[in-house]
């Protein structure tokens, strides 16, 4: 059953926890994923309560953010119990955030609509205008360049450069961002992704034109 107080309490808890996060999984990323997930849930007629809570909690157990994943899962479980989410709903929410935080879960089709929506919303935040901004912000934080013609193709990298994971922002478009459109689970997300994808292609065309002095 939809319970707005539980959503609000959870939102405040996550906001406080992530306000100073620096890995691209800050509170505003969560807030955007949450809003996008609501849009998708309405279009796809999914269970909004489950979708909203899973979207809000989706990064709290990510091993890029927490030292101990099992502990983080426990904490989320206690939280849900504490705010009065039924154990059946808690299980559904935890299953969603565990499956989508699983790295390389790329090709595995998620088995509930609610999980598919949260994953789609998370992926939509990695493309389009926001996705471009996040990509350059991430590269900057790693000390990677905007673009390096030498490093843009795996074949041109030395073994050491490749091992060190030395990359550049534009390379990340080809390695990941331009692939996300075709990985969307739901029709509603695919529709949103089309537009964001086209914008990135346009962006890259302009980027390379300007790179060449045109
Ligand atoms: P997720 O949110 O799916 O866990 P990541 O932690 O891999 O994704 O990435 C967080 C953000 O940083 C995303 O917007 C992603 O596109 C961007 N990012 C990840 N790796 C790179 C990279 N090597 N270069 C530029 N941007 C990156
Ligand atoms: Ni995320």
TrEMBL record:
<dbReference type="Pfam" id="PF01966">
    <property type="entry name" value="HD"/>
</dbReference>
<feature type="domain" description="HD">
    <location>
        <begin position="26"/>
        <end position="127"/>
    </location>
</feature>
<dbReference type="InterPro" id="IPR006674">
    <property type="entry name" value="HD_domain"/>
</dbReference>
<protein>
    <recommendedName>
        <fullName>HD domain-containing protein</fullName>
    </recommendedName>
</protein>
<dbReference type="InterPro" id="IPR003607">
    <property type="entry name" value="HD/PDEase_dom"/>
</dbReference>
